[in-house]
Every structure is written in C-alpha cells, then in structure tokens.
Amino acid sequence: MENLYEHDLAGAQFTRPCGGNNGTEGGEARVELAAIPGAGDAFALRDSKNPDAGTLRFTGDELRAIGMTTI
C-alpha cells in the first residue's frame, strides 16, 4: 500500500465539499478536501480554521466507504 504521507501537497487545491456547523464555539467548523498530487485516487483533509495543523490522508475508496460521494 502506498504511503500517502510521502506526497508533497504543494499545489494541492483545497475546497470545502460540504457545509459547516454553525453550532460550534468560535464560528463555523469545516473540513477542506484536496486531491493529493501524484497519488491517483487519494485525498488530504484539513481543518479550514487551522489549515497549518496538518492533514489526514485517505484513499478515494476509504472516503466513499464512509459515504462521501462528492470527491
């Protein structure tokens, strides 16, 4: 299995695939999603309010398995 964390995210275009949650303290909470450059069907997720905190990375199959169909 490919290590998705070995790929550089430079040039990745993060978007917000779903609405936010206005009920959180301090404002809206959202995730941002980007295709991982050079990794095929793989994606990085990050916190829109703290994008420098890092990313979680998933294959497209993993995201579709949890019902994420907007990838």
What does this structure look like?
The chain has one helix at 60-65, and strands at 31-35, 42-47, 56-59. The protein has 71 residues and is mainly β. It has one domain (13-65). It has a three-stranded antiparallel sheet with strand order 1-2-3. β1 and β2 (42-47) form a beta hairpin. The mean pLDDT is 87.
Largest sheet: 3 strands, antiparallel
Distance between the termini: 21 Å
Q: Catalogue the unreliable spans.
A: none
Over the alpha carbons, how many angstroms does the gyration radius reach? 13 Å
What is the beta-strand fraction? 15-25%
* Helix run count: 1
Order of helices and strands: EEEH
The count of strands amounts to 3
**Overall geometric form:** globular
Strand order, largest beta sheet:
1-2-3
Q: How much helix, percentage-wise, in residues?
A: under 10%
* Class from helix and strand fractions: mainly beta
How confident overall, as mean pLDDT? 87
How many structural domains does the protein architecture include?
Answer: 1
- Quaternary state reads single chain
